[in-house]
Protein: Protein kinase domain-containing protein
Amino acid sequence: MRRRTRFNHPSAVATTLLLVIVILPAFHAAENISYSFTSFNDSVKSSFAFRGDATIYQGALQLTPDSRNGDNLLINKSGRILLPDPIKLWDWQQSNNTKRVASFNTAFTINVFRDNGTVPGEGLTFLIAPNVDEPPPGSYGPFLGLTNASLDGNNSNHFVAIEFDTAKQPYDRDDNHVGLDINGVDSNITASLTPLGIEIAPVNPTNHTVWIDYDGVHRHVWVYMAVEGSEKPVAAVLNASIDISDYVLQSSHLGFSASTGNNFELNCVIAWNLTVEKLPDDGGGLSLGAIIGVAVGVGCVLVVMTLTTRILVVFCRRKRAAGNERDMLRKKLNGLPGTPREFEYKELKVSTGNFDERRKLGQGAFGEVYKGVLPGSSMEVAVKRFSRDKTKGQDDFLAELTIINCLRHRNLVPLLGWCHENGVLLLVYEFMPNGSLDQHLYGGEGLVWWRRYNIVAGVASALHYIHHEYNQMVVHRDLKPSNIMLDATFDARLGDFGLARALDTDKTSFTELGVVGTRGYIANECCITQKFTRESDVYAFGTVVLEVVCGRRPLYDVSGFHLLVDWVWKLHREGRLLEAVDPRLGGEYPAEDAERMLLLGLACSQPHPGARPKAQAIVQIVSRSAPPPGVPKFKPAFVWPPPQGPLLKGNHDDDNGTSGTTLASSTATSSNGVFSSAGGWALSLDVETGDSEKISRR
Structure:
């Protein structure tokens, strides 16, 4: 990495050498290891290690034989198909002596075929294996190509697998389940597929798609399954806490295994996608000798340069301030876990066509976002260029980078890296090909119902993660459709953490002079207290839910109402709630789900923060594992300070409550104050007009 720094004192050389030694090992490219196979034929055969009775045939990975020469050729078989190159799944970070575990996600389509009238057996697995050796002798039948009677359960096996089992053993719950296997086939946790209407080996041949997501930060796995062509379900069929680094080798092989027993089936994988977070190579970077060599070389060159040319010294003097600022920034970033990649400015300039206006994806208070394609690859990225004043811009840049770099969740936009050069601050994110949610709600062809529901579920999951699962509570403060991105499969990814703040464990709110955010998504109490909390994020989420269901913006003049939430509440009181649903859906939606979403949106929009459901309850409601929340027919008045005693009904301190707390309607309002926000607009805290009946009714 080239540096431009002025040296006017011998200690500057030592300082530079120290910076080189400290910084160089930390800068690893934030990359993923990816494989994608839409079908299988002889041209990709070299991409796999075939073991046992496995092969490629008829466009599929066939883990057990496909033969009609006699049933004896089909029974008691086992096979494995693995990626021949090992993938590093965990490592120790020497800087802080902590273990880092790679996150990964995979999606594959399977077909488990059995002849009509026959009983299937035994099953297949997605496998993390220590090597590409042959399956152990006797690994047919209930052992699924993983182990055998003498090795089953042995810690030396070093495998973790997700099984799809079609034969019941004494230790199994049934003959149609998913299980998590650790070093043995007696699953640590299982989930029956029968209640979900899924049959692994149905009489009529059916393809099923499986999604497996593993979070290496929180050591948790989720498994989803649906008939091919369906969207990824909202709820996982199996989820479990597991630190795979406790069981698998540091570098392991990923793939599949299967077996037949006295009963048989054809176990096929017909498509497979895999993405694994790439961890640094062993040693954490350059060798010590290489670092010293680079450091000494750079130091000597810089000293010679300062002694041989006055012109260069003058030039460097002008750049010194920027260089010092950049070094200070690097020092701060090196203190972060998993330091993101530093991009060169010229690389991002080329990728965005010199920040061509035609490549602009959007613009906000902090700057512009451009689409780019990294030179030398086909990787598409979104480049955020900060444009606020120098001091505030760097604060915003550091705040966003510090928070998003530490967050790992399938419903957050992944950060790839950063750049700070010549006073320009840039963040590089993974590109979301389907843009932002607002583009689809208010333009284009709109969104079908099931896609809208899945988007709400994804945002709810992300909100629960930043509020309750991450080791610091994060308050987003700017939750709205334009900050909800949609990936290639229209899964929601919450982005733009420019206003977000991480709070210490003993804090519950963040205070800032002036009110930040976007009008229509800011809870009333924020304008008085200037504090942002989990409850204020939930308020914004409720606004988003109503937008998604109604297809209308939050500040929308309809039927004499200036706020969407007031109009929806009126329909709720009159028993006409479903009339709020976006007419563009043409009635193509489940009425029960639409009512569930509208009630959730109203519950989250309760004027009193304590009456709003917590993120955990929201996830339960969206996943249909809890009933819709109870919502009063009349919208309560906003009263501050919050009412105490009999005016407040319910227990709003219960994190697991799903019915929500209700406020009795009241004539009390705030004291006619008008509060100016940092954005320059004013908000009256009087009860909104437009529906006289909602005032003073009890």
User: Anything to note?
Assistant: The longest strand covers residues 266-277.
